[in-house]
Amino acid sequence: MTNRLVTTVFNPDTGVATVTFNRPEALNAINVPLAQAFLAAVREINGLSGVRCIVLTGAGRAFMAGGDVSSMAGTSEQAGAAISAILDAVKPAILLLRSLDAPVIAAVKGIAAGAGLSLALMADLVVAHEDTRFLLAYNGIGAVPDCGGSWFLAQKVGAGRAAELMMLGRTLSAPEAKDWGMITSIAPEEDFEKQLNGIIGKVANGPTRAFGAFRQLTDRANGNQLAAHLEAERAAFLEMTRTEDFAEGVTAFLAKRQPRFQGH
Fold it and tell me: Which residue of 86, 129, 244, 261 lies most exposed, with the fewest beta carbons within 10 A?
Protein backbone atom coordinates (compact mmCIF):
# COMPACT_ATOMS: atom_id res chain seq x y z
CA MET A 1 0.00 0.00 0.00
CA THR A 2 1.16 3.53 -0.75
CA ASN A 3 -0.21 6.42 1.26
CA ARG A 4 1.14 9.94 1.31
CA LEU A 5 1.63 9.75 5.08
CA VAL A 6 2.48 6.08 5.61
CA THR A 7 3.96 3.63 3.13
CA THR A 8 3.84 -0.13 3.46
CA VAL A 9 6.03 -2.51 1.49
CA PHE A 10 5.78 -6.30 1.80
CA ASN A 11 8.35 -8.72 0.41
CA PRO A 12 6.65 -12.13 0.14
CA ASP A 13 10.02 -13.83 -0.45
CA THR A 14 11.41 -12.74 2.93
CA GLY A 15 8.16 -12.21 4.81
CA VAL A 16 9.28 -8.70 5.83
CA ALA A 17 6.69 -5.89 5.92
CA THR A 18 8.09 -2.35 6.26
CA VAL A 19 5.94 0.51 7.52
CA THR A 20 7.39 3.97 7.00
CA PHE A 21 6.07 7.14 8.62
CA ASN A 22 6.23 9.57 5.73
CA ARG A 23 5.84 13.12 6.93
CA PRO A 24 9.50 14.15 6.82
CA GLU A 25 8.83 17.89 6.53
CA ALA A 26 7.41 17.70 10.08
CA LEU A 27 9.93 15.10 11.33
CA ASN A 28 7.05 12.60 11.06
CA ALA A 29 5.17 14.29 13.92
CA ILE A 30 1.94 12.38 14.38
CA ASN A 31 -1.35 14.11 13.64
CA VAL A 32 -4.80 12.65 12.99
CA PRO A 33 -4.27 11.81 9.28
CA LEU A 34 -0.93 10.12 9.98
CA ALA A 35 -2.41 8.17 12.90
CA GLN A 36 -5.28 6.98 10.72
CA ALA A 37 -2.90 6.01 7.93
CA PHE A 38 -0.81 4.07 10.47
CA LEU A 39 -3.86 2.08 11.57
CA ALA A 40 -4.79 1.37 7.95
CA ALA A 41 -1.26 0.11 7.28
CA VAL A 42 -1.28 -2.20 10.30
CA ARG A 43 -4.67 -3.57 9.31
CA GLU A 44 -3.37 -4.24 5.80
CA ILE A 45 -0.41 -6.16 7.23
CA ASN A 46 -2.77 -8.16 9.42
CA GLY A 47 -4.57 -9.27 6.25
CA LEU A 48 -1.41 -10.51 4.53
CA SER A 49 -0.27 -14.11 4.47
CA GLY A 50 3.30 -15.06 5.33
CA VAL A 51 4.39 -12.02 7.38
CA ARG A 52 7.46 -13.00 9.41
CA CYS A 53 8.75 -9.59 10.57
CA ILE A 54 7.42 -6.01 10.69
CA VAL A 55 9.79 -3.04 10.49
CA LEU A 56 8.75 0.44 11.62
CA THR A 57 10.82 3.36 10.39
CA GLY A 58 10.58 7.04 9.51
CA ALA A 59 11.32 8.91 6.29
CA GLY A 60 13.86 11.71 6.31
CA ARG A 61 15.84 12.89 9.34
CA ALA A 62 13.73 11.44 12.16
CA PHE A 63 11.90 8.35 13.29
CA MET A 64 9.17 10.50 14.85
CA ALA A 65 9.39 13.79 16.73
CA GLY A 66 6.30 13.14 18.83
CA GLY A 67 2.79 14.46 18.44
CA ASP A 68 1.99 17.44 16.25
CA VAL A 69 1.68 20.04 19.01
CA SER A 70 0.14 22.59 16.65
CA SER A 71 -2.94 20.37 16.47
CA MET A 72 -3.27 20.64 20.27
CA ALA A 73 -3.53 24.42 20.32
CA GLY A 74 -6.79 26.23 21.09
CA THR A 75 -9.26 25.45 23.83
CA SER A 76 -8.99 22.39 26.05
CA GLU A 77 -11.98 20.96 24.17
CA GLN A 78 -10.21 21.41 20.83
CA ALA A 79 -7.00 19.91 22.18
CA GLY A 80 -8.87 16.99 23.70
CA ALA A 81 -10.70 16.27 20.46
CA ALA A 82 -7.45 16.23 18.48
CA ILE A 83 -5.71 13.98 21.00
CA SER A 84 -8.64 11.57 21.19
CA ALA A 85 -8.81 11.34 17.41
CA ILE A 86 -5.11 10.44 17.27
CA LEU A 87 -5.46 7.84 20.03
CA ASP A 88 -8.61 6.39 18.46
CA ALA A 89 -6.33 5.24 15.62
CA VAL A 90 -3.07 4.57 17.44
CA LYS A 91 -4.55 2.44 20.24
CA PRO A 92 -6.00 -0.27 17.95
CA ALA A 93 -2.83 -0.17 15.83
CA ILE A 94 -0.66 -0.88 18.88
CA LEU A 95 -2.94 -3.62 20.18
CA LEU A 96 -3.08 -5.27 16.75
CA LEU A 97 0.70 -5.19 16.34
CA ARG A 98 1.14 -6.71 19.81
CA SER A 99 -1.33 -9.48 18.92
CA LEU A 100 0.49 -10.62 15.76
CA ASP A 101 3.06 -13.40 15.70
CA ALA A 102 5.55 -11.45 13.59
CA PRO A 103 8.14 -9.60 15.69
CA VAL A 104 8.25 -5.81 15.33
CA ILE A 105 11.59 -4.06 14.80
CA ALA A 106 11.94 -0.28 15.04
CA ALA A 107 14.68 1.16 12.82
CA VAL A 108 15.38 4.53 14.39
CA LYS A 109 17.37 7.51 13.13
CA GLY A 110 17.52 11.16 14.15
CA ILE A 111 15.09 11.53 17.00
CA ALA A 112 12.47 9.45 18.77
CA ALA A 113 10.50 11.79 21.02
CA GLY A 114 7.11 11.71 22.69
CA ALA A 115 4.80 9.40 20.77
CA GLY A 116 7.81 8.48 18.62
CA LEU A 117 9.60 7.13 21.68
CA SER A 118 6.43 5.30 22.72
CA LEU A 119 6.12 3.60 19.34
CA ALA A 120 9.82 2.70 19.24
CA LEU A 121 9.57 1.12 22.69
CA MET A 122 6.46 -0.77 21.59
CA ALA A 123 8.67 -2.72 19.17
CA ASP A 124 10.23 -5.98 20.28
CA LEU A 125 13.67 -4.88 19.07
CA VAL A 126 15.12 -1.44 18.33
CA VAL A 127 18.05 -0.78 15.99
CA ALA A 128 19.30 2.80 16.29
CA HIS A 129 21.67 5.02 14.35
CA GLU A 130 24.54 6.10 16.58
CA ASP A 131 23.43 9.76 16.46
CA THR A 132 19.82 9.10 17.49
CA ARG A 133 18.41 11.00 20.47
CA PHE A 134 15.65 9.68 22.71
CA LEU A 135 13.43 11.85 24.92
CA LEU A 136 10.03 11.66 26.55
CA ALA A 137 9.19 15.32 25.77
CA TYR A 138 5.71 15.33 27.37
CA ASN A 139 7.04 17.28 30.35
CA GLY A 140 7.74 20.17 27.98
CA ILE A 141 4.04 20.69 27.29
CA GLY A 142 2.70 19.78 30.74
CA ALA A 143 1.24 16.46 29.60
CA VAL A 144 1.73 12.74 30.27
CA PRO A 145 2.92 9.97 27.94
CA ASP A 146 0.48 8.40 25.53
CA CYS A 147 0.66 5.70 22.83
CA GLY A 148 1.80 3.25 25.50
CA GLY A 149 4.84 5.28 26.55
CA SER A 150 4.33 4.93 30.29
CA TRP A 151 3.56 1.19 29.92
CA PHE A 152 6.59 0.27 27.80
CA LEU A 153 8.99 2.58 29.65
CA ALA A 154 8.07 1.06 32.99
CA GLN A 155 8.58 -2.44 31.60
CA LYS A 156 11.88 -1.73 29.85
CA VAL A 157 13.69 0.70 32.12
CA GLY A 158 11.78 0.68 35.42
CA ALA A 159 9.88 3.37 37.28
CA GLY A 160 13.00 5.16 38.53
CA ARG A 161 14.54 5.80 35.14
CA ALA A 162 11.14 6.57 33.63
CA ALA A 163 10.74 9.27 36.30
CA GLU A 164 14.18 10.64 35.41
CA LEU A 165 13.15 10.99 31.77
CA MET A 166 9.85 12.64 32.68
CA MET A 167 10.75 14.83 35.63
CA LEU A 168 14.25 15.90 34.61
CA GLY A 169 13.52 16.04 30.90
CA ARG A 170 16.62 14.03 30.02
CA THR A 171 17.62 13.43 26.44
CA LEU A 172 19.45 10.15 25.96
CA SER A 173 22.08 9.43 23.36
CA ALA A 174 21.94 6.06 21.59
CA PRO A 175 24.70 4.59 23.83
CA GLU A 176 22.83 5.79 26.93
CA ALA A 177 19.58 4.30 25.67
CA LYS A 178 21.40 1.02 24.99
CA ASP A 179 22.82 1.04 28.51
CA TRP A 180 19.32 1.63 29.90
CA GLY A 181 17.92 -1.35 27.99
CA MET A 182 15.73 0.73 25.67
CA ILE A 183 17.36 -0.36 22.43
CA THR A 184 18.90 -3.52 21.03
CA SER A 185 21.70 -2.38 18.76
CA ILE A 186 23.58 0.77 17.68
CA ALA A 187 25.27 1.29 14.33
CA PRO A 188 27.13 4.10 12.56
CA GLU A 189 25.79 5.41 9.26
CA GLU A 190 28.03 3.21 7.13
CA ASP A 191 26.96 0.03 8.94
CA PHE A 192 23.36 0.86 9.81
CA GLU A 193 21.63 -0.90 6.91
CA LYS A 194 23.89 -3.94 7.15
CA GLN A 195 23.31 -4.35 10.87
CA LEU A 196 19.58 -3.69 10.55
CA ASN A 197 19.20 -6.18 7.71
CA GLY A 198 21.15 -8.78 9.65
CA ILE A 199 18.76 -8.53 12.59
CA ILE A 200 15.71 -8.46 10.32
CA GLY A 201 16.94 -11.56 8.49
CA LYS A 202 17.58 -13.47 11.70
CA VAL A 203 14.14 -12.62 13.10
CA ALA A 204 12.30 -13.25 9.82
CA ASN A 205 13.89 -16.70 9.56
CA GLY A 206 13.05 -17.61 13.14
CA PRO A 207 10.10 -19.55 14.59
CA THR A 208 7.43 -16.89 14.03
CA ARG A 209 4.65 -18.69 15.90
CA ALA A 210 6.91 -19.20 18.91
CA PHE A 211 7.92 -15.53 18.82
CA GLY A 212 4.26 -14.51 18.89
CA ALA A 213 3.51 -16.84 21.79
CA PHE A 214 6.56 -15.49 23.63
CA ARG A 215 5.33 -11.90 23.26
CA GLN A 216 1.91 -12.88 24.60
CA LEU A 217 3.56 -14.54 27.59
CA THR A 218 5.73 -11.51 28.37
CA ASP A 219 2.72 -9.18 28.08
CA ARG A 220 0.83 -11.42 30.50
CA ALA A 221 3.81 -11.43 32.84
CA ASN A 222 3.59 -7.63 32.88
CA GLY A 223 -0.06 -7.71 33.89
CA ASN A 224 -1.78 -8.24 30.54
CA GLN A 225 -3.48 -4.84 30.96
CA LEU A 226 -2.11 -2.93 27.96
CA ALA A 227 -5.54 -2.09 26.52
CA ALA A 228 -6.77 -0.75 29.84
CA HIS A 229 -3.52 1.16 30.36
CA LEU A 230 -3.83 2.86 26.97
CA GLU A 231 -7.26 4.11 28.04
CA ALA A 232 -5.84 5.28 31.38
CA GLU A 233 -3.16 7.24 29.48
CA ARG A 234 -5.86 8.84 27.33
CA ALA A 235 -7.87 9.88 30.40
CA ALA A 236 -4.79 11.35 32.09
CA PHE A 237 -3.73 13.23 28.96
CA LEU A 238 -7.21 14.68 28.49
CA GLU A 239 -7.22 15.77 32.12
CA MET A 240 -3.92 17.59 31.53
CA THR A 241 -5.39 19.50 28.59
CA ARG A 242 -7.64 21.25 31.10
CA THR A 243 -4.71 22.61 33.12
CA GLU A 244 -3.10 26.02 32.84
CA ASP A 245 0.30 24.37 32.55
CA PHE A 246 -0.75 22.48 29.40
CA ALA A 247 -1.95 25.68 27.76
CA GLU A 248 1.33 27.35 28.69
CA GLY A 249 3.35 24.37 27.47
CA VAL A 250 1.69 24.31 24.05
CA THR A 251 1.98 28.10 23.70
CA ALA A 252 5.65 28.03 24.66
CA PHE A 253 6.40 25.14 22.31
CA LEU A 254 4.84 26.89 19.35
CA ALA A 255 6.61 30.14 20.27
CA LYS A 256 9.92 28.25 20.62
CA ARG A 257 10.53 29.49 24.15
CA GLN A 258 10.88 27.85 27.56
CA PRO A 259 7.55 27.27 29.31
CA ARG A 260 6.79 29.00 32.59
CA PHE A 261 4.80 26.45 34.53
CA GLN A 262 2.88 27.47 37.65
CA GLY A 263 1.74 24.04 38.81
CA HIS A 264 -1.92 24.64 37.95
Answer: 244
